[in-house]
């Protein structure tokens, strides 16, 4: 269920962003992480043959964990830079800061 929550968060970041590169990079990271989780869970349930794919953020393995965390960090940096869609509305009699 946590991978579904992660996928929903990635989709929200994709929809929020105006930058095409941010959208493509975020969707690529989402497909990579969620796809890897799907394959691992399917192997554990016996639906797929053993492939040796680690479960992202859970399974032991330094290089897989580092690359997954780096991808999530890049996506989080895209989420921090929200586009300025509308100018701030100033009420009459007040000055904008």
UniProtKB/TrEMBL annotation:
This is Probable peptidoglycan glycosyltransferase FtsW. It comes from Pseudolysinimonas kribbensis. It is found in: Membrane. Pfam families: FTSW_RODA_SPOVE. The chain crosses the membrane at residues 21-51, 57-79. It comes from the Bacteria. Peptidoglycan polymerase that is essential for cell division. The lineage of its organism: Bacteria, Bacillati, Actinomycetota, Actinomycetes, Micrococcales. Signal peptide: none annotated. Keywords: Cell shape, Glycosyltransferase, Membrane, Peptidoglycan synthesis, Transferase, Transmembrane, Transmembrane helix. It is an enzyme of class 2 (transferase). PROSITE patterns: FTSW_RODA_SPOVE. Belongs to the SEDS family. FtsW subfamily. Pathway: Cell wall biogenesis; peptidoglycan biosynthesis. It catalyses: [GlcNAc-(1->4)-Mur2Ac(oyl-L-Ala-gamma-D-Glu-L-Lys-D-Ala-D-Ala)](n)-di-trans,octa-cis-undecaprenyl diphosphate + beta-D-GlcNAc-(1->4)-Mur2Ac(oyl-L-Ala-gamma-D-Glu-L-Lys-D-Ala-D-Ala)-di-trans,octa-cis-undecaprenyl diphosphate = [GlcNAc-(1->4)-Mur2Ac(oyl-L-Ala-gamma-D-Glu-L-Lys-D-Ala-D-Ala)](n+1)-di-trans,octa-cis-undecaprenyl diphosphate + di-trans,octa-cis-undecaprenyl diphosphate + H(+). PANTHER family: CELL CYCLE PROTEIN, PEPTIDOGLYCAN GLYCOSYLTRANSFERASE FTSW-RELATED. It is a multi-pass membrane protein. The keyword Transmembrane applies. Its main location: membrane. Its EC number is 2.4.99.28.
